[in-house]
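REQUEST ID: PR-0412
SUBMITTED BY: lab tech R.K.
PRIORITY: routine
TASK: structure prediction, single protein chain
INPUT:
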Amino acid sequence: MKETGTRKGLVVLGVIFMAMVFVSSEAFPWGWAVHTYVDDHIGKKAEPRNLNEIYGGMAPDTFIYMFSNPDYLGYLSYQTHNEFMKIWNAAKWSIEKPSAFGFVSHNDVWGADSTAHHACITCGEEKGYVIVKAEILKDTLIAVVFENLGIFLDDAIALEISHELVENAVDILMKRIDHSIGRKITSAALFRSPEFPLLLAKAYAPGFAETFGISRLEAAKIIVSAEKEFRKSLVLYGQILMQDEATALQLISEQTAGVAKGFLAANGIDLPPDTDITPLVQYFTELAMALCAADFADEVDATTSYVGAQMKAHGISY
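STATUS: complete
OUTPUT:
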């Protein structure tokens, strides 16, 4: 893919990053590259099952771009991360099982996200891996932003930004242990089963409709539309991670800088006109990469083994 095409595509990816900033980081502690790695190792090896498991493993984040309706966003994201068995139980046909398998693996209760959010396996702390690293990064972020821009960030805002920076950093680092991680993300999105959006609607539309007083048909349309946009974002995200590490870092930093300005403004913090914070974002992404470089692979591998064992223990197989 040409770099110009990638840069143009960042306009689309910005929608996803914007949502990721405004939604609580509790919903999606690991980035999509980590989920891709996990499902690539615990599931079937043959395509198309492998690709559908990978796509399913990213799909609980389908609704994070719905920032125009935060009530829908919050409800559906909670459902996909915590009421994940709905989709497994709704998958009645063999063609639906691979996606449902990956979907369940993502969960925040005993799935992959639990080690990033609640309890890391290798870092020796009673917190998730991403949380631990973000808390380390936070204090430096507060000090440097104040020194360079004269702006004080309180702990909550700084921690939210730090979560995103750590997620970005780990996803970029994943290229070091799997050079084809970007291709796998894009391929999974391009070749996901056409039945998946309907499976997602079958699992979550009834409760969604009842909760918000809309018809099941309207609820299903909203879910299917969200999945369509999410799929597009994954195609682009994978293409960004296909670039060399320096280019991927630069592209993600450029986009995150734009989104960070919007996030700060939404929280009453206006940057001076024409301020380009891309260098600061890239600096902190690199700092986050340095914080994670020595141990991220061990945590990701331990998470992969843990999730594989949990899937077997909970009878998730096909």
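NOTES: Residues 3-313 form one domain.
REVIEWED BY: pending
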